[in-house]
Amino acid sequence: xxxxxxxxxxxxxxxxxxxxxxxxxxxxxxxxxxxxxxxxxxxxxxxxxxxxxxxxxxxxxxxxxxxxxxxxxxxxxxxxxxxxxxxxxxxxxxxxxxxxxxxxxxxxxxxxxxxxxxxxxxxxxxxxxxxxxxxxxxxxxxxxxxxxxxxxxxxxxxxxxxxxxxxxxxxxxxxxxxxxxxxxxxxxxxxxxxxxxxxxxxxxxxxxxxxxxxxxxxxxxxxxxxxxxxxxxxxxxxxxxxxxxxxxxxxxxxxxxxxxxxxxxxxxxxxxxxxxxxxxxxxxxxxxxxxxxxxxxxxxxxxxxxxxxxxxxxxxxxxxxxxxxxxxxxxxxxxxxxxxxxxxxxxxxxxxxxxxxxxxxxxxxxxxxxxxxxxxxxxxxxxxxxxxxxxxxxxxxxxxxxxxxxxxxxxxxxxxxxxxxxxxxxxxxxxxxxxxxxxxxxxxxxxxxxxxxxxxxxxxxxxxxxxxxxxxxxxxxxxxxxxxxxxxxxxxxxxxxxxxxxxxxxxxxxxxxxxxxxxxxxxxxxxxxxxxxxxxxxxxxxxxxxxxxxxxxxxxxxxxxxxxxxxxxxxxxxxxxxxxxxxxxxxxxxxxxxxxxxxxxxxxxxxxxxxxxxxxxxxxxxxxxxxxxxxxxxxxxxxxxxxxxxxxxxxxxxxxxxxxxxxxxxxxxxxxxxxxxxxxxxxxxxxxxxxx
Length: 692
Ligand SMILES: Nc1nc2c(ncn2[C@@H]2O[C@H](COP(=O)(O)OP(=O)(O)OP(=O)(O)O)[C@@H](O)[C@H]2O)c(=O)[nH]1
Ligand SMILES: [Mg+2]
Description:
Helix 15 (392-421) runs antiparallel to helix 22 and helix 21 packs parallel to helix 26 (632-644). Residues 1-26, 212-217 and 242-262 have low confidence and may be disordered. This protein has 3 domains: 3-191, P-loop containing nucleotide triphosphate hydrolases (Rossmann fold), CATH 3.40.50.300; 199-280, no CATH class; 326-689, no CATH class. It starts with a strand and ends with a helix. It is of the alpha/beta class. The chain has helices at 43-51, 95-107, 121-134, 145-150, 157-164, 179-185, 199-210, 219-226, 230-237, 264-278, 285-304, 315-322, 326-376, 380-387, 392-421, 423-436, 445-453, 455-461, 468-481, 485-495, 500-524, 544-578, 581-596, 603-612, 614-626, 632-644, 649-659, 661-689; strands at 3-5, 32-36, 68-74, 77-83, 111-117, 137-143, 153-155, 168-170, 190-191, 305-307. Helix 3 links the parallel strand 5 (111-117) and strand 6. The radius of gyration is 28 Å and the shape is elongated. Bound molecules: guanosine-5'-triphosphate and magnesium ion. Magnesium ion (MG) binds next to helix 1.
C-alpha cells in the first residue's frame, strides 16, 4: 500500500516530514473515502492504519496541510483513502481548511469518515451537522476513546448512531483498537440526519434551493451562500468548477452529478440571491447557524454522554498546568531551548561529529578510501576527484555523513519528541505576545519552529495561518532568520567551542535583524493580523514507535535529497578548481568576502555552496574554523551571513509554488541583500569596538 500527496512533496519521500510516495492513480479502486475531522484528532493515524503507509503524525493541530491519498484494501476491496487537513467548520478560515472543503465539494468522495476526538463531543457534533448538510454517506469514528475514558467520559455509541443516522464506532487509532469495527461499518455508511434549523434559516434556505438559479445547490452550499462565506463565492466563481462535480442538487447520496459547465449566469444569480436573502436577518445568518448547531449538539451530548469521576491528575497534568502560566511557562520555553542546545549543539555537533569526522572518517574510512582509490585508479585526476581536496569521498561524503548526519539525527530525535509531546501549541501560546511584534500571532510559532527542522516543509505549513499577510510575513521570516536543523546544528557546534560573547553577538544579530525586518514588513504590508485561536492538545508521552518511524523517514529523505546535492556541489568545486575558475571566483568575490566582511577569500565557496544547501555552506565554515583559518570575529560574521543567507534550492521552489515566482524572487533578493548588509555592518562594529 502506498500513499501520495497533492503537493510539491508528492515525489517518493521527497520531504522528510512526510512519508508519502506517488499516488497510485492508475490503480482501479471501488471509490474514495475521505477522512475528515477537527485538527489533531488522529486522522493521519487512521489513514496510516487503513492504507498501511506512513504520513506524518504529530501532536499539534496543522500537521497535515495538504490532501494525501493512499490505497487501502477494506473488506476485500480496494479503496482510495484520502487524508485531509483538519477543519473546525466547513467555512474555511485558512488555506489548509480550504483544501479539505474544496475536496469535499469538488470530488464528492463516495464516503466520509469523520474522525473525531471522543473527548470533545460537542464540537465533533457541530462538524457532523455540517457534514450532514453536505449529504454524503458517512461514518463517525469516535477516536481517542482511551483518553475520553480516562477522563471519565462514557458515550452510548448505539444511541448516538440512532440519533445521527450513521454508524458510530469507538476507536483508539494509535493501538488499532476499533479499527476492524470501523472497516466493518463502512458498507453501512449513510448520509447523516440533517439538523432542523430555526424557521428563519430554513425558509431562506428553501427559497435559495427553490430559486431557478441555485436549483440544485446542496444545503451546505446554500448555507455558505447565506452566511456570506467569501470562499464559497470564490469556489463557485472559479472557471470550470461547476463542471467538476459541485453538488448542485439538494438530494442526498452520491449519485451522478449534473454537469453545469457553462452556467456562470446561474452562479451569479445564486450569489446575488444569497446576498439578497441575508438582508432580512436581524442577527447574521452565520451566527444563527452556529447557535442552532451548538444547541442541537449540546442536546445530543446530554442524551448520549455521561461523565464519572476522572482519574486523579498525575505529573503530566501538573506539567500541563504550569506550561502556559507566566514565569513557569517562559522558564519551560527557555529549558526546552537549552536542552536542544546541549543535545544537538554540544552532544551531537561536538562529541558526535568529533567521533564521526576524526575517528571514523579521519582514522579509518578516508585513509582506507585513499589507499583503495590509489590502488584501483593510477590516474591522478580520478584520485583527486574521489579523494582529493574537493573529493567526493573526502569532502562530499565526509561533510554529509560525518558532519551533518549526526547533527540531523539528533535534531530529528529531539524534534520528534517535541512534536509528539503536544508542547508546541503551548509554546505558541507563550510566544504569542512576542510574535505580535512582527505582525504575526502565536499560531506562527508552529511554522517557525518547524523551520528549525526544515524550512521547506515549514513554508508549506504557513498554510495554517489565517491571512495572506501572515503567510507572506512568515515565509519571509523563515527565509531570513530561521536556520534549518542541519545548519543550526553546525552553527551550534562551531559556537559551542567559543564563549558566551560569540553566542550573544550571533543571537543578537540574527534575532535583531529578524525582529526588525518582521516589524517593518508588518507595518508596510497591507492586511490584518488574525486573533490567536488554537486548540491545545493534551500533553502526552511521545510514542517510541512513531518517533522512530518519523526519524527513519526523515533520515531517508535527508540521504536522498542532501547527499546528491553535496556530491553535485563538490563536483562543481572540483571542476572549477581544475580549470582555475575557483580561484578567479574567489578573487572576483573578494570585494565582498574580504573587503566588506573581513573574511578570508576561501569563504567564497562556502557561500556558493550555500545556494545549493545552507547546511553545506555552514559545514564548509565548520571545516575552515577547525583548520584555524577563521578568528573569532570572522567566525561570527560568517555565521551571521550564512544564517541570514538565501533560501536553499528546495525552499525556493516551494516558495515559488506557494507564493508565486515574483514574491519568491523578491523575498530572496531582500534576504540576500540583508544578509550581507548586516554581516558587513557587524564586521565594522566588531572591528571598531574590539568586543570580540
Ligand atoms: N491517546 C491517543 N492518541 C491518539 C489517538 N489517535 C491519534 N493520537 C495522537 O494524536 C496526535 C494527532 O494525531 P494525527 O494523526 O497527527 O492527527 P490529525 O488529525 O491527522 O492532525 P492534523 O493533521 O493536524 O489535522 C498524535 O500525537 C497521535 O499519536 C488515540 O486514539 N489515542
Ligand atoms: Mg494529519
